[in-house]
UniProtKB/TrEMBL annotation:
This is Aminotransferase class III-fold pyridoxal phosphate-dependent enzyme. GO terms for molecular function: transaminase activity. The keyword Transferase applies. The chain holds residues 367 to 807 of 807 of the full protein. Transmembrane segments: none annotated. Keywords: Aminotransferase, Pyridoxal phosphate, Transferase. Its cofactor is pyridoxal 5'-phosphate. It comes from Paraconexibacter antarcticus.
Length: 441
């Protein structure tokens, strides 16, 4: 399969050779890199993308889950064009910034909002707000979870399994070089789906005079495929944070907009103090947002915490976001995504059962995946211990060679878009069945 993909992507290879002369590693972001070379895209329309070799693919990658609206949606295009004609940037607020905040307030039930330009900025500012409010430094995150590329959260992500050992006593680990050890040490990771472990760790931190400012987490983990919260887990975390006066941040950069109108907050009915959004929020433009309670956002309103940025609330991004939220991501759109996701999950589950594959299909809203693990993954440790990485790699190559564009990682999930149809998801299942046939032949 690797050879076949190489043969199909010779144009990407030629592009890579040119790109490599001017772009570090030939890519704009390290997450776009891939061995032996990246796939360079040229165009997207609705549920499909085309690479520079002219390969037409159903897009299940969707820009790491940013394009839940589908590519080149006419309503978003019209909003961008209209805005362009009357100026794209002032660094002064516009009407759309108010309209979007009102819609986010309605969806999340959180009263006060601010904008940023990416998920990383959203989590960076949210953590600063929590620290500013509480006057504390320590941050609690989930073992193995990703919240962007700023120093505080580039901690205890991709840990090798043999490094994990006794996770309750594992030191915080830097994710890549260039992060000050003092910053790494301020971030403490605890396992997902284990409120007891979080409680023990928080009590220990309090005893050490290091009471956390916040817990930052995804309500459903979206970087181990999809890992859903076990019953009662989110409420237990909520109660724990309330009891100790710790700010609870739901990082909904991936789940927000994509899994329900009001994201994971709506889906599981547990309300955080702060929520972070990005990716799909901007309908293809770089827009992020932070929403919070009156109490938490008061430190922004009184000016004690600086929440700033030249491009925050950029009119072009706000116009695209307004059109996306009000015209594209309607109740009908969410119903469509739920129906399609049920269909693809049921299709994959049927294949798994028919061919006796060691794995399961899991998903929510527009997101899902087949997890190649004989047992259920509930967090980073069970993922690392049980995921068949070779199978995940093979499935990716197999998909790519059959016109299914997916994220080139073992940790990602599919994101359906409103432009996807039963034809798209049925093709996915058909290719998955072909893989099953070959594996069991
Ligand atoms: N939080 C989560 C949950 C994410 O998945 C990501 C990106 N994968 C980020 C934050 C960072 O977002 P960005 O890449 O836009 O900075």
């Amino acid at each position: 399969e690797a050879k076949a993909l190489d043969a199909r992507t010779q144009g990407s290879l030629a592009t890579y050779r040119r790109a490599n002369q001017v772009l570090a590693g030939g890519v704009a972001s390290s997450y776009q890199a891939r061995d032996p070379w990246p796939i360079y895209l040229e165009r997207g329309a609705g549920p499909k993308v085309w690479d520079v070799d002219g390969n037409e693919m159903w897009d299940f990658h969707n820009g790491f889950g940013s394009m839940v609206q589908g590519h080149a949606h006419p309503a978003i295009g019209a909003a961008i064009n209209a805005r362009y004609a009357s100026g794209t940037h002032f660094a002064a607020p516009t009407e759309d910034a108010i309209t979007v905040a009102a819609e986010l307030q309605r969806r999340w039930g959180l009263p006060k909002w601010r904008y940023v330009n990416s998920g990383s900025e959203a989590t960076m500012d949210a953590i600063r707000i929590a620290r500013g409010l509480t006057g504390r430094d320590t941050v609690v995150k989930i073992f193995g979870s990703y919240h962007g590329h700023h120093d505080t959260v580039m901690v205890s992500i991709g840990i090798e399994y043999d490094q994990i050992g006794d996770h309750e006593n594992l030191a915080s680990l830097s994710y890549g070089a260039g992060i000050p050890q003092a910053t790494v040490d301020m971030t403490i990771a605890v396992p997902f789906n284990d409120a007891g472990a979080m409680e023990r760790r928080i009590e220990r931190l309090i005893a050490e005079d290091r009471k956390p400012a916040c817990v930052i987490m995804e309500a459903a983990m979206m970087n181990l495929g999809v890992v859903l919260p076990e019953d009662g887990y989110l409420q237990a975390v909520r109660d724990l944070c309330t009891r100790h006066g710790i700010v609870l941040i739901f990082d909904e950069v991936k789940t927000g907009i994509c899994i329900a109108a009001g994201g994971a907050t709506e889906k599981w009915g547990v309300k955080p103090d702060l929520v972070t959004l990005a990716k799909a929020l901007g309908g293809g433009l770089p827009v992020g947002a932070i929403g919070g309670t009156e109490e938490v956002m008061s430190v922004v309103e009184d000016g004690s915490v600086y929440q700033v940025g030249t491009y925050n609330g950029n009119p072009l991004g706000m116009a695209a976001t307004r059109a996306s939220l009000l015209e594209v991501m309607t109740p009908d759109a969410y119903a469509h995504l739920d129906r399609l996701n049920e269909r693809i999950l049921a299709g994959c589950t049927a294949v798994i059962e028919r061919y006796g594959l060691p794995g399961y299909a899991v998903g929510v809203g527009s997101k899902g995946c087949v997890t190649f693990s004989p047992t259920k993954v509930i967090g980073y440790e069970t993922f690392k211990a049980n995921q068949d990485a070779a199978m995940a790699d093979l499935a990716w190559l197999f998909n790519m060679n059959r016109g299914i564009f997916m994220t080139p990682g073992r940790e990602e999930e599919w994101t359906l878009s409103v432009a996807h149809t039963t034809e798209a998801v049925d093709r996915y299942v058909e290719v998955f069945e072909e893989l099953a046939v070959e594996l069991t032949a």
